[in-house]
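chain below, 437 aa
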Amino acid sequence: MGRMLDIQFIRDNPDLVNEKSQQKGYKVDIPALLAADTERRELLGQVDVLRASRNDNASKMKGGKPDQAVIEEGKQLKIQLAEREGYLAEAEVSYRNLLKKVPNMPADDVPIGATEDENVEIRVWGDKPHFDFDPKNHWEIAEAKDWIDKERAAKVTGSRFAYIKGDLVRLQFALIQFVLSTLTDKEVVQKLIDENNLHLEATAFTPVLPPVMIREDMYDQMDRLEPREDRYHLEGEDDDLWLIGSAEHTLGSMYASEVLAETQLPIRYIGYSTSFRQEAGTYGKDNEGIFRMHQFDKLEMEVFSTPESGMDEHKLLVAIQEYLVQQLGIPYHVLQKCTADIGKPNTRGVDVEAWLPGQDKYRETHTADYMTDYQSRRLKTRVKRADGQIDLVHTNDATAFAMGRTMIAIIENFQTADGHVRIPTVLQPSLGGRTEM
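prediction:
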């Protein structure tokens, strides 16, 4: 898996790369890419020869007056070199553009499927609550409690924005405190590593408040800029900036063009940020309440590791996601995402979907993405091994909690007949010992 989209892998396995790309829903022109690669390498060879000749010519110019033939040769070499370097620059752009279109290869255990309907349920946890009344959706409860004001937000900002108020704000900060105290506890991390038979170090997560704006080149190297119509672009003096759609966008690009020491790995971050998405084309019930917003807050895990521990880090992140949801007492199921749904940079993807009684179905609250070295190759984030060898790091990201959707799950699963919401036990200490809101 490690060097999956090294050009050498594509040269050696053109048919496989084409087949796996199609399974993910991407059309790639492998013959055109390999032709561009050949042209680029030929031009590189020609440029190297001309540079050597130019250097040789320059040495003849030194000491005493060079004869006219040497001067003339120097002029010709300069012209030829400029021409070939121009061709090479064009060939490099063409090659890079074609290479960037090739997605990461799905892991061997990823189900082959054409739509998200072909994702595979691999685990179910918890008993769905039984109510002796008709359960309401979060929106009805929150509106009655004056926890969410979308009308005034629409007046001030626009649709798909909200003022979050009162106890819902306190609940959000209780969730943040719960996640931070859990993930910074080395013993909890060790427990989950042991329970899942993972070969990993029990390094705790470091909390980070990352920037919520990102330069276009970094966004592109993370391969999270597309589809652009889902992103917010900032206009102004520096119109190179975009608003992030998740904390991992600025966390994953932190070490661009750096070489980390092997002793520094794994680096595990838990980042908190406000995130922004256009969410173009969504409709129906998702527009009610705060399920799908243009602006939302999220706690996101990001891990940098060695290639050999990358898959275990991915499994640890899924184990953490399940642990967090279990601690709240919310029923859920786990889906292994199929080839069409895992995303372009991903080699593997897992979703956790919480049960929402108000919708009478499971809805996505968490996703875990394993990118192998796909992002780090573009970002040039490397690791220096103990023996001096330089490798690309592997990257993972995963939701800890998307605040809005987690609060929806709490409101709907713990609603009472009189319109209150019971507070999950683990959150009660952060809410002054209250059991209900």
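The domain at 116-431 is CATH 3.30.930.10 (BirA Bifunctional Protein; domain 2). The first strand starts at residue 120 and ends at 125.
thats it, cya
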